[in-house]
Write a structure and sequence with these properties.
The chain is α/β, with parallel strands linked by helices. The protein has 17 helices and 19 strands. The strands form five sheets. Strands 7-6-15-16-17-14-18 form a seven-stranded mixed sheet. A five-stranded parallel sheet has the order 9-2-1-13-19, covered by helices on one side. The chain has a three-stranded antiparallel sheet with strand order 10-11-12, with no helix packed on it.
Length: about 525
């Protein structure tokens, strides 16, 4: 494939990987057809639902790598969307606000995380002065590990093998040996191991891992390097779309259609035709098909392999990430502090213990909540009447347990969802935002099983694959399909997040066309 000859590209799935790739290739002169199995929604985990004229983003609430010059900014400029899709900065004095425990108890914590690793360091040492030496060592090493990571993986257009990256990294004289040692020394460490090195007490760990829901992992299993990189990434500049994530995805759809492509709903792909070692046609369950020169799959590697003839299938050993159910809450506009305190901020609540994602019991009180308000950020109300507020809340899920509840029938599912919503509202009202219970209008639960149905994410997973030490290390050995023109652009194959999906598209565009943005 080259940048001059027009190609027809079939994209399976409309998640961020599929839509970012589709928009980039469409803008570059190729004909793109995105096939989405959902009957009405696009966006995959980034899809938006509406209840009573309130909009809820089912996945992303903010992004990183969208500052001027960053890959997200260059992406929007290349697509000529930079004026249409504006991103606003989260509040620097506390873009994350972490609540731990029960309000009015002696050990209750209400901590604002300022934007920027150095600012976070200063806030932590002021809050916990008795551990300042430990914390300074911790933050010093975080910065060094992140610098080493950026040196190794920083160019999104690089398409070398991991081993080439590693060789360049190890033998380069541009990176300090101490930084290399720290990076490599923590590749095999969990976040718990990382915390242990600095003898950090439990109270510090809870705050440092207060945003742990973003990983859907226990800190005992979460990769230390994964934690450092993700934390440092959004401390570089966390932002959210001024008009909401639904406008972000709809604008990508417009780019594809404006350049002669299509984004079609209700198109469940059932098979991929192979001629020689190349994919030539994609078939859908409704009897339609798309002839193509290239296939980009935004569904997981296993699901993609199931679409191939038997002899072309390969085994993948990855583990899907844990699931994160969503609770969409509508409120009467009557809580004065909600819009003021939540504008440009994310709220996290923990019960004070390490969050258990491996065996979470979804019938009991959640141990962690992530809380965001689209209306506080200015894009949650679709009616224009501005009479209601909303919250989108995430909590640890348990796909197998939820699947068991669904097998009991609709009444059991409804009862469980009602109980979960009640527990979540109670936690928020008593320990985070007083007044939520008395102003409640509705609370809709989107379960792991619902997520699986809507997105085809394996076990309703939140982030593609788990972000454990073992899974992070597996990315060192990429798995390729035995089909020359089939590429996987999903989070299960690459990495989760809006910026990561864009990086996948930027990298693939450069690899196949030589176009660098």
């Amino acid at each position: 494939m080259n940048g001059e000859k027009q190609q027809t590209i079939a994209v399976i799935g409309s998640g961020i990987g599929g839509m970012a790739c589709g928009a980039l290739f469409a803008k570059s002169g190729h004909t793109v057809h995105v096939l989405e199995q959902h009957e009405s929604l696009i966006g995959g985990h980034g899809r938006c639902l509406s209840f009573q004229n309130l909009s809820f983003s089912m996945g992303p609430q903010y992004v990183w790598h969208f500052k001027p010059g960053d890959v997200g900014d260059r992406f929007l400029r290349y697509l000529e969307l930079d004026r249409e899709i504006r991103f606003l900065d989260l509040e620097e004095d506390g873009f994350e606000r972490i609540f731990i425990g029960k309000k009015y108890q002696p050990d209750y914590i209400d901590f604002k995380v300022p934007l920027g690793l150095d600012n976070f360091r200063n806030a932590m040492t002021l809050r916990f002065p008795e551990y300042s030496k430990n914390l300074n060592s911790f933050f010093d090493d975080m910065q060094d590990i992140y610098n080493a990571y950026i040196f190794l993986y920083g160019d999104p257009t690089q398409d070398e093998s991991w081993f080439r990256y590693a060789a360049d990294f190890l033998f380069s004289s541009d990176m300090k040996i101490a930084h290399k040692v720290k990076f490599l020394g923590n590749l095999f460490s969990s976040v718990k191991d990382f915390f242990d090195k600095y003898n950090l007490p439990d109270v510090c760990r809870r705050v440092l891992y207060g945003h742990g829901g973003i990983f859907a992992e226990n800190e005992s299993h979460m990769s230390a390097v994964g934690y450092v990189v993700a934390t440092a990434n959004y401390h570089q500049g966390a932002r959210y779309p001024e008009k909401g994530f639904y406008t972000f995805f709809s604008s990508l759809k417009d780019v594809i259609e404006r350049h002669g492509g299509t984004v079609q709903n209700g198109k469940t792909v059932t098979s991929i035709e192979i001629d020689g070692d190349s994919a030539t046609r994609v078939f859908c369950s409704d009897g339609t098909s798309v002839r193509c020169d290239v296939v980009l799959s935004d569904i997981s590697p296993r699901l993609t392999c199931n679409l191939l003839p038997e002899k072309y299938r390969v085994d993948f050993s990855y583990q899907p990430s844990h699931s994160v159910p969503t609770i969409c809450i509508g409120l009467k506009k009557g809580i004065p502090s909600l819009r003021n305190e939540m504008r440009g901020r994310n709220f996290w609540w923990q019960d004070g213990n390490e969050v258990d994602y491996d065996s979470a019991d979804v019938t009991k009180l959640p141990s962690m909540l992530f809380i965001n308000s689209p209306t506080a950020n200015g894009f949650g109300d679709l009616s224009g009447n501005d009479e209601m507020d909303n919250l989108v809340v995430f909590c640890p899920g348990n796909y197998d347990q939820e699947k068991g509840i669904y097998k009991l029938g609709p009444e059991a599912v409804a009862a469980w969802k009602k109980d979960l919503a009640h527990m979540v509202v109670d936690i928020i009202d008593t320990s985070v935002i007083p007044g939520v219970r008395e102003n409640l209008v509705f609370a809709e639960v989107i379960s792991s099983v619902d997520i699986e149905h809507d997105t085809l994410g394996e076990k309703g997973n939140a982030y593609g694959t788990r972000l454990t030490v073992k899974e992070i290390l597996k990315t060192a050995v990429p798995c390729e399909y035995p089909v020359s023109n089939l590429y996987n652009v999903s989070a299960s194959y690459n990495a989760p997040g809006i910026a990561s999906g864009i990086k996948t598209g930027v990298r693939l565009l450069y690899r196949l066309t030589g176009i660098r943005i």
